[in-house]
Automatic annotation (TrEMBL):
GO biological-process terms attached to the record: SCF-dependent proteasomal ubiquitin-dependent protein catabolic process
Name of the protein described by the UniProt record: F-box and WD repeat domain containing 4
Superkingdom per UniProt: Eukaryota
Origin species: Amphiprion percula
Membrane-spanning segments: none
Phylogenetic classification of the source organism: Eukaryota, Metazoa, Chordata, Craniata, Vertebrata
Residues in F-box domain copies: 1-46
InterPro entries found in the cross-reference section: F-box-like_dom_sf (IPR036047), F-box_dom (IPR001810), SCF_F-box/WD-repeat (IPR052301), WD40/YVTN_repeat-like_dom_sf (IPR015943), WD40_repeat_dom_sf (IPR036322), WD40_rpt (IPR001680)
Gene Ontology CC: SCF ubiquitin ligase complex
PANTHER family for this protein: DACTYLIN, F-BOX_WD REPEAT-CONTAINING PROTEIN 4
Amino acid sequence: MLFSQLPEDVLYHVVSFLDHRSLCRLSQVCKSMHRFVNRDAVWRKIAKEFLNTGITRDGTDIYPHIPLKDRVKTAQNWFNGVCKRASPLKWKTKLLPWLQLDGDTLFLSQAANIGAYHLHQGTRRLLRNPFQIYSGHQGDVCRFAVTDSNLISGGSDGKILVHSRRNHVSLELSGHNQEVNCIDSKDGLIISGSRDRTVRVRTFLIYYCYAYSLCFSFATGTACCENFSPLLIWNVERSACVCSLGSEFRRGAGVLDIIFESPFQLFTCGYDTFIRLWDLRLSPRSCVMEWEEPHDSTLYCIQTDGNHMIASGSSYYGVVRIWDKRQTKCLQFFQLSSDPVSSPVYCLRFSSSHLYAALATALHSLDFKQSPIYIR
């Protein structure tokens, strides 16, 4: 009996002992083995150990439409820092942009407007002209969040606007007295924080949205100027602070970005140059892990792949860093800004093959899928 004629359950057991290089060699043996090895089930175990393959810690596949074999190949470029760099959008006036990714659409705020741009389905190249522009703020858009049916924005004018992505209708909600520094939305709730030192939670019933449950928690990060507890966890149902995270923070060690990776785990970064992982099931007094920015720069933003990878944006020269959670030191870094005047990375987002970063005068992209060019 030939090896390729073995029962499939036996073949799966045998290939489970092979690494990615051995699997690639095995796929070249014959057509039947090529078809078998190309199955996602063969690569799933290996993909979970690589960076940004779309397989999260709990086994969820974020990008089921992309073959796992291709994602493992791209993941090696993420690990080695091999990519192509481009600046698909540039502007003259210095801004504080923000961006979000939703499938094949990239949303980018520029001054008082938010543009929605198509990404080419194959190359992920940004089409320069937005197919939709969301407006209505009297000042700059500070932050915005994207859901399946709405885009919710907060501006320097204190307003909060809910834009329908279906029928181009906008609704203004009662906002804040000063600029909105952060905003998020989940299950029909809108949570916003402002420079006026308040956090507001709203429910809304519009555009077929409904608040199914109020039983969840959210985190707030402050500037750490008048107290030494910049990180607080709040329960929405009780409208009360559940706990404060950490201790002995330096004065001014404010929090600039918070990412929940699960209901119990969150990542934070800010002025004290550390990325920290917190687990709400453990002691709130100390973090589980921390990673330090090696050049002592403020960290403006972070994003995770739900498994092993963290991407961070620093305050100087548009530096983006790639981290492996299993290591304490930075894995790769990319200096995106070539201007004489330094710019922070105000926001970054990534897909399985591309990373997009918004700086003061340009949107930059790193393509980890195309022909490799090693950059620094």
